[in-house]
Design a protein that fits this description.
about 40 residues, about 90% helix, 1 helix, mainly alpha, about 0% strand
């Protein structure tokens, strides 16, 4: 019972980490696009 629960928690954490990573990328990329660097 503990192993599948741990797998579910890790999968949720992975999804959250991916969402946070995308948010950080957008936060860093958008100002650069606004400045015309990209």
């Amino acid at each position: 019972m503990a192993k599948p629960l741990n797998q579910r928690i890790t999968s949720r954490q992975r999804q959250q980490l991916q969402q946070i990573a995308v948010m950080l990328l957008m936060m860093t990329v958008r100002p650069a696009i606004n400045k015309g660097a990209i």
